[in-house]
Amino acid sequence: MARFKRILLKLSGESLQGQQGHGIDPERLGDYARQVKEISEQGVQIGIVIGGGNIFRGLQGAGKGFDRVKGDQMGMLATVINSLALSSALTAIGCKNRVLTAIRMEPIGEFYTKWRAIESMEQGEVVIMSCGTGSPYFTTDTGSSLRGIEIEADVMLKGTRVDGVYTADPEKDPTATKFDEITYDEVLARNLKVMDLSAIVMCRDNGLPIYVFNMDQVGNLRRVINGEPIGTLVKA
After folding, report:
1. What CA–CA distances, in Å, run from 86 to 111, 137, 138, 141, 162?
2. What is the CB neighbour count within 10 angstroms for residue 28?
3. CA-CA distance, 187 to 178, in Å (whole number)?
4. Contact 170, 76 (CB under 8 A)
5. What string of DSSP letters covers 134-168?
6. Cβ 133 vs Cβ 146: under 8 Å
7. Between 140-150 and 114-122, two packed helices, what is the crossing angle to 10 degrees?
8. Distance from CA of residue 46 to its chain's centroid?
9. Is 197 exposed, middle or buried (CB count within 10 Å of its CB: 0-12, 13-18, 19+)?
10. Alpha helices, DSSP H only, in the chain?
11. From CA 203, how far away is CA 226, in angstroms rounded?
12. Of 7, 45, 106, 234, which has the fewest CB atoms closer than 10 Å, so is most exposed?
């Protein structure tokens, strides 16, 4: 029995690099698609927001001389590339899906509205929502918080390369300890790098819990949906 009826799955663009260290790794993309199909077949309604860090990050571009607005727009287009790649991988394994964009770019994707997204999910389609919020100065973390709230998701599942929230970066600090649960306010007070602070505040103020887990371990998405305690829950 699935633990959630409707989820917002936030995927890292950088994780799509897999072992090759750049671009899109077909093997990692296929793993993601199969995991998404698996929970879709359990009846879970799925909305997905995917970052673009494997292709371009607007903030990093601004640090190298790019105009910030144009840099963020390039980042939005990077999320579209990743969304189309995931859509293609899902289609290839028989999982119905739809790409929605926060900026008009038909026929690449349909223009996002809350009602179109919900209608598609209720019809059994996986909905991939790209371009972040459609505005500069916002990350895909904030975009995923916004979309999760709009589509009335039960939870935001943040798939990362670590297995939860720690007291410090476990990749840098071997003494870091993992939380099973933590409050939004404690995340903010400790300045933990779960998501952008604006995204955490948005989730807190609108009652959207966040579950952080390792998406790169095949089968973990199903385990989360089935209620196995493999990550960290962030809630009030």
Report:
1. 18, 25, 22, 18, 21
2. 20
3. 13
4. no
5. SSTT--HHHHHHHHHHHTT-SEEEEEESSSSEESS
6. yes
7. 70
8. 11
9. middle
10. 26-40, 58-63, 68-92, 114-122, 140-150, 184-190, 197-206, 220-225
11. 23
12. 106
Helix (H, G, I), strand (E, B) or coil at 68: helix
Categorize the per-residue pLDDT at 1 as very low, low, confident or very high, splitting at 50, 70 and 90.
low
What is the distance, to the nearest Å, from the Cα of residue 175 to the centroid of all Cα atoms in its chain?
Answer: 28
Model confidence, pTM? 0.94
Closest-CA residue to 147 (of 222, 206, 106): 206
From residue 12, alpha-carbon distances to 5, 50, 109, 115 in Å are 22, 6, 20, 25
Angle at 194 (CA atoms; ends 173, 233), nearest 5 degrees:
105
Report the Cα 95 to chain-centroid distance in Å. Answer: 18
**pLDDT per residue over 144-168, tens digit each?**
999 999 999 999 999 998 899 999 8
Q: What angle is formed at CA 13 by the lines to CA 31 and CA 32, rounded to 5 degrees?
A: 15
